[in-house]
Specification:
36 helices, Serine Threonine Protein Phosphatase 5, Tetratricopeptide repeat, mainly alpha
Length: 661
């Protein structure tokens, strides 16, 4: 047990001595300090730090006494302050003090990593020991991944000027670099890893060249990736060669590699890599159906099931059932069996084959209820079948089951409409405005304190295991789209969804541009929550968004569309990257489309994506009996999915903010 006197003496020795902060005084002689005073000091230190007055922040943080629960963070912040002005001696002393006093603190891994970074400058051997501790104690952390690289570079610098470079050392260095690229193929250190690795006088294997090519592709260095693809074994590297050729706009080479790889060398490659190559290639072709058909005909093994699934998706209505039946029978253990069975089920539903549909649907739910993304869809249509046969208890059970198990799903929205016998897709036209809040009812006193102090950097580190907190901190920094994607993915991973009042939902469905969307939707005669949903899906509330096709701004308007709408409304000047202008024109454009389609919001959302002409053509040619039947048969999968995404968002905005249950 260390006495306070000894601790005080030892701290003075650690704090004083050399560098910019040599004159800093230890202010902990008074053991007791009211928590309000500690908070006040910490806030002042954080303000100085954020204002880049690092000498001042270092001194202010030193005034927090050891009895305060803020002392660990104050010491850590002193070290950060010293780092900012490159007084590495003082920073090292503070990191060592932190690790000595608080070895199990949640910030210890970050402190050790920063310590190792500083030690690299003057004491690389000591730095390597710290990096190795991180790798050993926290092997799956981002810090361990980066430590692999730095451990390798330390040894590389150690031997590169020596006459003898042991083979064992070269092997260890390559192992460190290899581990980094495998664990972080798109990490910020990829280029440095590859440059250092290829500077060594070593034999690099084909597999390692492939690893480098894959990482270079992922970080967007396509020219260099092309060099390394050529050094790898093309039998195993062809999927990344296809994607890189597409990135370099060498489509003829991509076509050759795609066909050659599927025909001759698919057994050498992971199926996920083949799927990625197929996805990239399909974005370059005029007909996905024809291309999938042609590639399926030449493919030998891996990838065939996916190509057949793509062919089925783009098949005509008359051919879909036979296509999906083949997919189901030929690849019973494949990755797309659930899709095939769900689509066979829907075919039976559309053709009024109730008994077979119920049999297939029941079998599907028995096998996939908890594992397939198609489960909500099948449950919903099983409800419709039960409704058709007047099995009241069954259809109520199915609809309620969808809403309970998949509350944020598009088919929960459709189930709600069926349960309430709604004749319109519009549930509500207004929403209450609610701010984004910290995603949990705060029960941990120290987290409360960090929030009160607004130390979001430490808070994010403190709760690095929680992506909802990460999303919230991203919102505080203004990284809106990234924050939404982070929260969305975190919510998708939850097997049981929280209640609609749970604050995490607001991170997934925030109400940005609330006033503009409300006011301009009123002016244009559109539905406010629906326009919020459409804007979310179009741009994730990024006013600078621009698509490859040229659509711009929050509601992703094409310049020609915006020009015609502005002329129609008598608007002479506008900027599509202005949130206000874009929302105004977007609402007027949607209102115009809605008028053309007799006020039907389902059709209007489809037309916003594909054009009113296409929707009117589908109305004439599709054999549909109701709204569900029409949506499921939309010939463009992109438009079909778009309609479902927009109304899924609409449903969530309504259930979260309108007060409806």
């Amino acid at each position: 047990m260390i006495s306070w006197d000894k601790l005080k003496k030892g701290t003075v020795i650690l704090l004083i001595g050399g560098g910019l902060f040599a004159a800093a005084l230890w202010a902990g002689a008074n053991i007791y300090q009211p928590s309000e005073k500690s908070d006040e000091i910490y806030t002042a230190g954080l303000n100085a730090y954020n204002n880049k007055d690092y000498s001042k922040s270092y001194y202010i943080f030193s005034k927090i006494v050891f009895s305060s629960n803020l002392k660990p963070l104050a010491i850590y912040r002193q070290a950060l302050s010293a780092d900012k002005v490159e007084d590495f001696d003082s920073a090292v002393k503070q990191y060592k003090l932190f690790l000595f006093l608080y070895p199990k603190h949640v910030m210890s891994i970050r402190a050790r990593y920063n310590l190792a970074q500083d030690l690299m400058k003057n004491n690389p051997n000591a730095a390597k020991k710290e990096f190795e501790k991180i790798i050993a104690k926290f092997p799956n952390s981002d810090y361990a991944i980066a430590s692999e690289y730095y451990s390798g570079t330390i040894d590389l610098k150690k031997y590169e000027n020596e006459k003898i470079f042991p083979l064992s050392a070269k092997s260890d260095i390559q192992s460190h670099f290899r581990h980094y690229l495998k664990k972080a193929p798109s990490g910020r250190l990829v280029s440095s890893v590859i440059n250092d690795w290829t500077s060594m006088d070593v034999q690099i294997s084909n597999d390692d060249y492939y690893l480098m090519a894959k990482s270079l592709y992922k970080v967007g260095d396509y020219q260099k990736a092309d060099e390394f693809v050529k050094k790898a074994d093309l039998k195993s590297s062809w999927p990344i060669a296809v994607q890189n050729a597409i990135a370099l706009k060498n489509l003829s080479n991509a076509k050759f590699l795609m066909e050659w790889g599927l025909k001759e060398n698919s057994e050498y490659v992971d199926k996920e890599d083949i799927y990625d190559a197929i996805n990239s290639y399909m974005e370059t072709v005029p007909s996905k159906y024809q291309t999938a058909t042609d590639l399926f005909g030449i493919a030998k093994s891996r990838g065939k099931d996916y190509l057949l699934a793509i062919k089925c998706r783009y098949s005509s209505s008359d051919d879909k059932f036979a296509c999906y039946k083949n997919l189901y029978l030929w690849y019973p253990a494949g990755s797309y069996t659930d899709e095939a069975q769900s689509q066979m089920f829907l075919y039976m539903v559309r053709n009024n084959n109730t008994n077979d549909a119920q049999r297939i649907g029941a079998d599907f739910l028995n096998k996939y209820k908890d594992s397939s993304k198609y489960a909500p869809q099948v449950m919903y249509y099983m409800g419709k079948l039960s409704e058709k046969t007047r099995a009241y208890r069954d259809y109520v059970s199915y609809y309620r089951g969808v809403i309970s198990k998949y509350p944020d799903n598009y088919y929960a929205y459709r189930s709600y409409l069926r349960l309430n016998h709604s004749k319109t897709p519009i549930i509500a036209t207004t929403m209450h405005q609610k701010d984004i809040e910290f995603p949990y009812e705060r029960k941990h006193a120290f987290l409360d304190k960090l929030l009160k102090l607004k130390d979001y950097e430490i808070l994010e580190e403190y709760t690095s295991y929680d992506d909802f907190v990460k999303s919230w901190t991203l919102y505080q920094r203004g990284e809106i789209s990234k924050a939404m994607l982070t929260a969305r993915d975190a919510m998708d991973k939850l097997s049981e969804k929280p209640e609609r009042t749970d604050l995490r939902w607001r991170l997934v469905y925030p109400e940005f541009y609330y006033n503009e969307l409300r006011d301009y939707s009123d002016r244009a005669g559109t539905v406010f929550p629906l326009m919020m949903a459409l804007t979310r899906e179009e741009s994730y509330f990024n006013p600078a968004a621009q698509s490859s096709a040229g659509a711009r701004g929050l509601m992703q308007l094409m310049p020609a569309t915006a020009e015609g709408t502005a002329k129609q409304q008598g608007i002479s000047a506008y900027d599509l990257f202005s949130p206000q202008d874009n929302i105004l024109l977007g609402n007027y454009h949607y209102g115009s489309v809605k008028t053309q389609l007799n006020g039907d919001n389902i059709l209007s959302v489809a037309a916003y994506n594909s054009g009113a002409g296409a929707v009117n053509q589908w109305k004439k040619t599709l054999n549909y009996t109701d709204t569900d039947s029409f949506i499921e048969q939309i010939p463009y999968p992109e438009t079909r999915d778009y309609v479902k995404k927009v109304f899924r968002s609409y449903w969530n905005y309504v259930r979260l903010y309108s007060g409806n249950d």
